[in-house]
Amino acid sequence: MADIPTFESTVPAPYVSYAGVPMESGRPDSPLTLRDVSSVTKSIVRAGPETKACHRLSTPFGAARTEDGVLIIGQRPDEWVLTGHGSAIRALTESLDRSGHISIIDGTHNSAIFRLTGAGAASVLEKLCSLDWRDLMTPDGAAVSGSVAHVTCDIVRNDQDITPSYLISCDRSYGQYLFAVILDAGHEFGISPLDMLA
Amino acid sequence: MLIVPCPNCGPRNASDLRYVGESRPRPDPNASSPKEWRAYLYERANPAGRLRETWYCRSGCRRYFALERDTVTNEFTNSPLPVGKMGKRP
Amino acid sequence: MTRLPPRPGEIIGRTRSVDFSWNGRRVSGFEGDTIASALTAAGVRVVSRSMKYRRPRGYMTNDYWDPNALVQVGDEPNVRSAHRLIEPGMAVEAQNVWPSLERDLRAVTGPASRFLTPGFYYKTFMRPRWLWPTYEKVLATFSPGGRIDLDTPHRYHDKRYIHPDVVVAGGGPAGMAAAIAGAEAGARVLLVEHFHRLGGHLLWGDDSDRALAGELVAEVADAGVEVLTDSTVTGRYEDNWIAIAQRNHPVAVERLIKARAKVLVVAPGLIERPYVFAGNDKPGVMLSGAVRRFVNLYGVRPGAAAVVFTANPEGDAAAADLERAEADVTVLDARRGENIVRALGRGKSIKAVEVADGRRLECDLLVTATGWTAPTSLLNMSGDRPVYDEVATRFFPSAPIGNVLVAGGLAGDGTHEQLIEHARTTGRLAAARARSVAYSLQAATARAKAVSGSQPGWPTDTRRSLPRHPHPPLFRSATHGLVDFSEDVSSKDMLGAADEGYDSVELLKRYTTATMGPSQGKLETVNTVAVLAEALGRTIGEVGTTVWRPPYAPITMGGLGGPMYEPVRVSSIQPWHEANGAVFMLAGQWIRPDHYGDPSGEVLNTRRNVGIMDVTPLGKFDLRGPDVPKLLNHLYINKWMKLPVGSVRYGIMCTEEGVVLDDGVTARLGDHHYMMTTTSSGTASVWEWAENWLQTEFPDWQVHITPVTSGFTSINVAGPESRTLVRRLTMDVNLDPAAFKYMQVRTGTVAGVPDCFMWRIGFTGELSFEIHVPAGYGLHVWEALLEAGEDLRVRPFGVEGQRIMRLEKGHFIVGQDTDGLTKLPALGMAHLLKLDKHDFVGKPELLWALADTSAPVLVGIQPTDPSIVPDEAGQIVRPGTDEIIGRITSSRMSPTLGRSICLGQVLPEASKAGSELTVLMTDGRRITARVMAHHAHFDPEGERVRG
Questions:
Q1: How far apart are CA C947 and CA C769, in angstroms?
Q2: I need a labelling partner for C89 at 20 to 30 A (CA). Which of A20, C457, C476, C530 fits?
Q3: ipTM of the complex as predicted
């Protein structure tokens, strides 16, 4: 029997931008960073507006909020994505009332999630996605889906203290491409890739 | 590029959506003549003016909905209806 | 030397000289010089040859729109040399000259030119047709444009999406004033100017003009306006989607900005219009603005003895500029009835001007100032049809839509104060309207901050309109000259075309190609209309103008393409494939191993021992809810209401037209839990299609569809030893043939990874277990299989091996062996069709298709000569004829059988087992082949998969 497996990142180092430029791993305090955070536990909850689970999650479509270490994202009408540590996710999903038309599936392996952080983060997104990234239209706590460099992504504005930060999530198979593309777009702003959080 | 008023997401670029086509009811598959069924498959009103049509918000909420659009001015003239291409409902 | 002493307002840095080359010769200019100003300062007068007649040409408008200014710079063709700044070491050359700029042997002198009248090409090169290759070679040498270097390295182009409140097109006084007022009223304003700096015509004006420009530039900065210089608004599209070509980006060669403006302010100013007379394209004939820019911006005197033909203050100012530059100046004033007839002189420069009163004035520079063209492009693109004003002798916007406002010379005339006041009011109106639009956008957007207060109203336009100054109607003199300088179209050509019946301006334009060259109507549109009006005896207003279309200024292909991001998908096993010699193929967006060096060997090893394949791109959908069977029953042609938990069923989907859409297996994992698969290529469309049915036709059905294609890494373990191999890595699944049968599914732990599921299916025709592993551990399981199966001779196989094996088994691929007309009965699988179901997609068409005995059917085919592999898509013809009765859809050499095998579609008459077929090969040979009794060439009974 093989060893206990470890979760594999979609973007193995060394990092290379889409244009083929090798990118040195940065330090977490670099002004603009991109990190693979795909190993976080994700849960996809589908529940109609009449269900108790929907009221319990109380996060409308287009919004995200944190509760007990779980980021609850109103990603689509009647659909939430929960991200966080496995134990916190489990605690929340196990507490959800299952009555009515509701389903909960593990989405941990389904998507890649990257965190783009820094004052220039919106300028990077502006090069890749046609949505309006200004505070008024995409404030902290906003959840939105859109095409990023021709890949449909779910994006949550999730500021780190006062630093703008975005969680960009795509189908796992696009992860390697999307990471390279964001590095390419962020190159002119001095972006640094960070290694995956274990 | 046209802005399409998605009932869930709000105004979006048309490229974020897929244009499904004119909204039209699906006839009864067990009681349709070939002529009726093929009218449903292939015939379009294509008016110069108001048209009820179905859109799919592909990059956003992933919902199908019907909108009424003036094909001459591109103005959307009513609020969205939650039924699309194959919808039997009014 | 024609460089003047330093003067106030010049924009060159005389302390920094810049060396570059012109046709291999070294030329020196100053920092801030354009190629045009540096060359003119160096005494160069001829910079290009005209497109058709190869006539020598010099600078005429000395700005971005100059039709004679296209040059080659290094590997870059078609550079606008009156706009592009010089850089050290830049290699500038005249383009498309042969053998040299000074002496182009293709130059056509007077009498011959009648052979190049409009329609010449259409009429002359029609016949004989066999001569066309020769014609083509000759004509190609006349095609305008520079040299394209196929070795040019890829350079970085960029894209940006922005959402400003107001975009102002044009950074002259009106544009700046509108931008300032808009920003002061709280709008986020983007000001776009196509020259290298803000100021517009004030830059080459007098002291007070420049002072005004300076004040406005400072105000623009203070007001927080975002400014883009050397950038052009190239188009306005639906709902104020604005395209901007930014040429001065620090990182990118060119950046295409797509701005969604709430309001667009159009303030491009006016473009000076040339005068039509004999010799009007000779080097030394210039427009007044060209002279003013040469003298005042670059300290360059473009001629020593000048005749200035003026009808307006701008022409008067050019004469004054030349006098200050100590040139000999003779002024001919159109307002006093004076006129010019022709420019005389050959080669490098004009020598004299013939005046209407018979005088002949010696000169080396003829300046004309005969009026203006209103560049209404962006208004045309907004749906406006400009109207002609007989008094001001130019076009004006008629009734622009509410979110497109006009300021500056396009809107009217007046003093600086009047124009600026009008523009400020325009800016305030733009900001107020933008506020109203912004409010509704924000209120309707799910994720946006909540709006406060009520929606600001839509302010009405209360601007006082600007006066319009009269201008003499000057279009053509008594002689004929060029109307379109880019395309070498003369007024005489146009009268001839009108005589031939091209009496609408849109037709005339296409027939003569006037307005269709690089200057795109900026200089020649109004003269084209005027000459046609003259020919038809109508007014300019009656003839009307052509419609201007995007782009307003050229944008590079690189700029349009942007950074060329093309998404690709990879499975979690990709690093292993890369490290182990996989030869990749692109399947849709997926990068997949085609093989690992020996596809035939991979097939044989899988048939003899065991092979593993990365089949992650297989479309996978998690279906949950009590109504899943109803949905499956509707989407598939077969029945799904009684599939037991733990079982897998194959199904085919057809469209409402009865055409085969997709196929795959679906497993029941739990009471209300199913896993559906689709073909890799059908994944996205089947998902949207299923959601469409669910959301619009059956909104009451309780089903949740979640795509999980890349959430599971899928590995097909196939071959006689597959059970032995899988058993070594699983503890909690009973793999005994009696406990885990063909077409069943089990969940369990594989190589220590929990939450895997596996099913027994047989696309390859072998005993096989398809294992689906949570993707974060996919690589781990792949490597574990290889390690655990070493003694079993496990080897990976790629897409090619799989394709061979499925063809040996006669399994069709939707889209390969079917096409957009293939209905279900053609596949010989009508037994799957369950017409007793009340309803499913395509039911009526399938019912009717069963009665159709004329449609082609899919059959197994083997060539008589087993060594010949017919081409895929090779035609099958009726023996002894060329009548097509079918085609080969798939063909391969089978390593298992040692012979070529095919699937093909043929008409029913030729589809019986044993029928002899004739197949056309691409090399023209005809080979014979035989229709087989089964699709399967190997193990038709399917004993191996059930093992």
A1: 12
A2: A20
A3: 0.96
